[in-house]
Please model this.
Amino acid sequence: MGLQRPPDQNSETVERMIKAAEELFSERGHENVSLRQLTSHAGVNVAAVNYHFGSKELLVEAVFENLVQRVCEQRELALEKLQPGESLMLEEIVRSFVDPYLGDGNEKQGALLARFLMRNRLYPTDGTRRVVSEYLDPMAKKYIAAFAQVCPNLSRQQLVWRYLFMTNTLAASSAGDNLSRRIGALSANSGNVELRERREAMIEFLVSAFR
Amino acid sequence: MGLQRPPDQNSETVERMIKAAEELFSERGHENVSLRQLTSHAGVNVAAVNYHFGSKELLVEAVFENLVQRVCEQRELALEKLQPGESLMLEEIVRSFVDPYLGDGNEKQGALLARFLMRNRLYPTDGTRRVVSEYLDPMAKKYIAAFAQVCPNLSRQQLVWRYLFMTNTLAASSAGDNLSRRIGALSANSGNVELRERREAMIEFLVSAFR
DNA sequence: TATAGTTTCAAACTCTCATTTGAACTTAAT
DNA sequence: ATTAAGTTCAAATGAGAGTTTGAAACTATA
Model:
């Protein structure tokens, strides 16, 4: 009968669409990727989006949720590994937060996540809010608790602020390749900036911001 | 003959359009404001946009340039007022940077600027890049020089990084009212967060990030 | 093999948007 | 008063987007 709610099956088609979406969204942002571009890049029919996800918006949210879930799992693991030892290092907490965000190798994951988080900041929807409150907020509380152990001089309120500023810095610094260009313009140096270098500078910045 | 380039006149119509654009853009972002909404809110005809600016994109860039110019002028003044005394305070430099950005009273200006800067980070165009290199970059060099005086222990490279992280934090923290909601979710406190409070917390954060 | 449910496909549909158009109106100079 | 340029207007245009459709292809079960 035409229009039925498809179950959450892991069909080949769905995976290909999500993969294509991650690639294209991380480059141009989901508002600049039409369904025709997306589906042709994935090698599936245009109608597949509405058939499998219901709408473009729901596809976007599925990709977002997918990614956030992945990152939060990695953070969970990294944070747990830190807890047992009593001597909790500030820098290691920051690293356990930043590393899963940026992912490995290329900067695509960080860029994608940054786009989503900025988008949620500027134009939140019910779906994106749900992802934040379901995955990010519980994780945030754990991090704030961890920071509280290392920074006993900061009040709970201050910790909340700084945690949020940290996430903002991370998101804003990962979005687009514009930062590298800007650094070239401001430094006397040559333009090219290494990824590793950027990551280390940011961690240094964040660590000092918690002191 | 139909299509001529109109000069930069300060006609009533142009002013009304820019004013309406600032209001609507700061609330919903320029991608979510159609020209019909914009012009009807301004009380002018739809065709006026293309007649006076050439296109929607050029109107957006004009609003952006307008705003950035204003903010940079205020920063210039505030920074100059600081220089004469030898005892340059880190916190005052940060304030001279933050205050013109956030504007006075309502948070509309900060939100508008944040949207533009994020947009430029995610989807830069020739026009927005021009505004950045023409207004923001020269200003940035002055600020980096000022920070260098107060933070002699930081290398030039570190100063550049931290300046950029500062701008990112500022932009990300000013965009949307989502931050307040998030704080409510993470604190045990009640949801409402004062503007002043937020501003002070951010300045505290930024100051500590430069130490 | 027959049948019912699921998935794919090309094509059409609908809607909104920025942009263009040509006439009407205003303004200022000759 | 006449003319020409600048400006405004309602209406049309056309491109591009997401979505829907109904038939065809596929898959599994009986």
In short: Residues 56-82 of chain A form the longest helix (27 residues). Residues 4, 6, 11, 13, 44-48, 51-52 of chain A lie near DNA strand C (CB under 10 Å from a C1').
